[in-house]
Write a structure and sequence with these properties.
112 residues; globular
């Protein structure tokens, strides 16, 4: 019995992150997004992180890109520049380090 599926490179699929994005892309602010994603991220970390926490790095990178896409769609000033949206997310990370569960654990991959 294997505890980890070796053929699966990322434990959480892009579809799961996309479904979470589609649910929160309404008029919720960043705290509403964080509040919705909190149990999902906590569940991913608790389930997949017990055996291989480093496998969640691509998931959190994808989540960061998805948050940047959300900011580009949500805020008019970031629609034209993705780099500005990445800088915005970096500022949010510095101002509110406990906003997202994975930020509290030290995962903060923001590749601008």
């Amino acid at each position: 019995m294997t505890l980890w599926n070796e053929t699966k490179s990322v434990p959480v699929s892009k579809e799961q992150v996309w479904l979470a994005y589609k649910k929160v892309r309404s008029n919720n602010g960043k705290s509403g997004v964080a509040q919705y994603l909190e149990p999902l991220i906590r569940g991913w970390v608790n389930y997949y992180g017990k055996f291989r926490l480093s496998a969640l790095n691509p998931v959190f990178q994808l989540l960061g890109r998805t948050l940047v896409m959300w900011a580009c769609k949500r805020y008019k000033r970031y629609k034209t520049s993705v780099n500005r949206a990445y800088k915005w997310l970096k500022r949010v990370r510095e101002q509110f380090p406990g906003l997202f569960y994975h930020w509290r654990l030290g995962f903060s991959q923001l590749n601008a």
